[in-house]
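#help-structures

NK: newbie question. if I give both the sequence and a SMILES, will the prediction place the ligand too? trying with zinc ion
OV: yes, paste both and it writes out the complex. here, I ran yours:
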Amino acid sequence: MRAGRSVSGMSLVVDEMPDLGITRLSRWIFNCYVLRSGDGAVVVDAGLPRVAGDLAAALGRAGTLHAVVATHGHSDHVAGAAELAARHRAPIWLPEATLAYLDGAKPRTPTLGRAASIWPTMIDQPLDRRGVAGFVSGAWVAGYGTPAGMRWTGPPPGGGLVDGQSVPGAPEWTVVTANGHTDDSVALWNPTTRTLLSGDAVLTVRGQAWHTPEIVDAASAAATRKRLEELPVAHLLPGHGRPVHAADTVWAQQRR
Ligand SMILES: [Zn+2]
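OV: that's the protein plus ligand as C-alpha cells.
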C-alpha cells in the first residue's frame, strides 16, 4: 500500500502519489489532478479560476501539458480550464454532453437541497478561504450550476469525451460515462493501477467511498453505481473529498 505525502503550505494541499503518477491539488473540497503520462501530463478538473498558479510547480516537474480535461461542466470543475490551457497552449476536452450546453442546451443541475446533502464531505476537510472565494467567483467565469446555465469564455474545446475512449494525452486512462449527478458526467479509469477518478459521481468521507446523493436523475445514478462497482477500484480519487486507498476494493467499506 502506498501512502500519499501531503504538504499543507498556506492552505493549498499537495498530495503526491508517485506510485500512481498522480498529484492532487486541493483547496477545501475542490480537487484538481495532474496525471503524468509519457513525456508530460493531463490535468483533470481545473475548477478554481486561479488554479493555474497552484499547478505551476507540479506542471513544471511534469513536462508538457497534453490536455485539460473535465469530468462534467459544473463551474467548480471547469472555471480554471481556459486560463490554464492558454498558459500551456493545451487543448480542453469536455464530456460530449457538455458540448451541447455550450451550444445553448439547458443543463439539469442538482437543487440547492441536494447540494446541501453532501455536507459530510464539506466538513471532512479544513475550510480554505481561497477555495471558497474561487468557487463563488468561478460560477461567473465558466460552467453551470446557477440559473444562468452554461457559461463559456474559453476557446472551442478540442473535442467531446465519449464512453470507452482513451483520454487524450493519457492513453492509459479510459472514459466511463457516470451520469446521475448531472447528465454530462464522466469518470476516468486506469485498469493497470486500478485507479478511478470519479468526478462527482462518487465522493469520499472519512476514508470511505460515497455515491453522491447530489443527483438530478435517480435511474442514471443507479446505473452509474452498478457500473462503477463492477470496476475493481483500489484507489478512488474523487472530485470532492480525500483519496481513498484500499488493499482490496474501495467498495467493500463504502458509506451507505
Ligand atoms: Zn463538483
